[in-house]
Amino acid sequence: MTIQRSLGGTEPVPPGPPRAAFSSSLAEELAPDVLDRFLRYARIDTQGAYRVTERPSTQKQLELSRLLVDELRALGLADADLNEGHSVFATLLGTVDGPVVGLIAHVDTTPDVTAAGVTPIVHQAWAGQPIVLPGDPHQVLDPEALPALATRVGHDLVTSDGTTLLGADDKAGVAEIMAAVGYLATTGNGRPRATIRVAFTVDEEVGRGAEDFDLEAFGADVAYTLDGTDLGELEVETFSAASVRVVIRGLSVHPGTAKGKLVNAVKLASELVLSLPADSLSPETTEAREGYVHPSRISGNAEEAVVDFIARDHDDELLAQHVELLRELARQVEVREPRARVEVEVRDSYRNMRPFIEQNPRVVDAALEAIRRAGVEPRLAITRGGTDGAVLSAQGLPTPNLFTGGQEYHSVREWASVQDMAAAAATIVELAGVWAESPE
Q1: CA 411 from centroid of its chain's CA atoms
Q2: pLDDT by residue (tens digit) across 6-38?
Q3: Quick check: 165 and 113 in contact, CB under 8 A?
Q4: Cα–Cα distance, 219 to 87 (Å, whole number)
Q5: Average pLDDT over residues 391-405
Q6: 108 is catalytic
Q7: Mean pLDDT in residue range 303-317
Q8: φ and ψ at 101, to 5 degrees?
Q9: Exposure string over 173-203, b if 16+ CB within 10 A, otherwise e
Q10: Residue 312: which of 302, 322, 303, 304 has the closest Cα?
């Protein structure tokens, strides 16, 4: 009888298929530590906040950061510290001279979905049936609708209870780095290894993860974020991104005497959103390298309404066109209602990392070899998002993005495969060995 395990208790479930094989004996060895760490970290609410001036945007993120400092020191990384840039830095010394390799993940979770009271559930040796999340039975992970899920029959899957996100983005990456570093620091089986620099950042989900990142103090020659998704993927291309805020100022009047006077900013904001293309240029109608304009938040009242957009594209020129489209649509609000006043604020978030990664092919080759050594077929991929690595790559530290095994990010239906997370941790261990063989 298999057991469906959660932090809140256990309950029997029907026997499932044989347990899915791990990608390597190393992955199997690392799996219990990866899982235990992930479950522990997932319980901590580290949700960030949009449009907050302070850093970090929420102080609760630092609860996990401080825990990680303590755990790193317990592993023997005596220099582990939460620095003035709000990042955790630590060093695992190598056994050979050569390049210093950075490993980076972020502790925060998206502001879009609650992260309070996360209850992870482990579905051992999943048999392939739809997974009904017990906290909200309307939330069902159906393998017929989720192709990646359908290929994980026999895997041990982790979900939330359906009332919160899970936090695999990016606590899976955090757990994998910690498990791999712990293995190298305490066991390692005599493997030669490069010097490793660990970093855990805050506020990545609000586009500020690398804002105060001290590259000189970090001291890595190359780096990798552990913030990807599907097994074996190495992401070498991100979106370029901008955030656009449109502020619409109307005129509030008591509705009983409003005839001919009221200028309703809420209605004008609604019209702005509805003026976007209906069948294109949105996340729900695009894929691959197609960009989009996404109204992500709307708030306000009759006097003033605010609409926040995110604009994304892999091509910088197309991104500029998307931003100009929003400017034009905002101008049209004033044309339709001259009594309104409309302001547009544009902030650049990050740029596509691809041109910077292409200048450093060794950082890609080493990762692909490490994935192979971990028993997984590697694949180059693009991401329809961004990472801290996009910013750091533009600043001179080539930082592609490795897979973590998490899926359906930013959703109460988020899930992760233990076997895939273990493969990611094994890849990190192998990566330290690959770079130890590459002194140049």
Answers
A1: 12
A2: 434 444 445 556 678 899 999 999 999 999 999
A3: yes
A4: 14
A5: 96
A6: yes
A7: 95
A8: -110, 125
A9: bbbbbbbbbbbbbeeeeeeebbbbbbbbbbb
A10: 322
Domains of the chain listed by start with CATH number: 2-238+352-436 (3.40.630.10), 241-349 (3.30.70.360)
The Cα-based distances of 315 to 241, 292, 308, 405 in angstroms read 10, 11, 21, 27
**CA 66 – CA 87 distance, rounded (Å):** 10
Q: Can you say whether the dihedral through the CA atoms of 351, 354, 355, 357 is positive or negative?
A: positive
Predicted confidence (pLDDT) per residue in 137-166, tens digit: 999 999 999 999 999 999 999 999 999 999
Query: Does residue 326 sit in helix, strand or coil?
Result: helix
Q: Is the dihedral of CA 335, 337, 338, 343 positive or negative?
A: negative
DSSP letters along 296-313, please?
Answer: EEEEE-SSEEEEEEEEEE
Annotated active-site residue 315? The verdict is no
Residues in the chain: 440
From residue 378, give the alpha-carbon distance in Å to each of 136, 168, 259, 364, 415.
36, 21, 65, 11, 21
Please tell me which residue in 71, 204, 227, 420 is annotated as part of the active site.
Answer: 204
CA distance 352 to 313: 9
In eight-state DSSP terms, residue 18 is S
Identity of the residue numbered 433? G
Concatenating the DSSP letter of every residue in 32-78 gives HHHHHHHHHHHTS--B--TT-SSSSSSTTHHHHHHHHHHHHHHTT-T
pTM: predicted TM-score of the whole model, two decimal places: 0.90
CA torsion angle 320 323 325 329 (round to 10): -160
Give the Cα separation of 343 and 247 in Å (integer).
5
Task: Choose the catalytic residue: 71, 108, 176, 414.
Answer: 108
Burial string for 54-85 (b: 16+ CB within 10 Å, else e) reads eebbbebbbebbeebbebbeebebeebebeeb
> Among all chains, which residue has been given the structure tokens 């907050």?
52
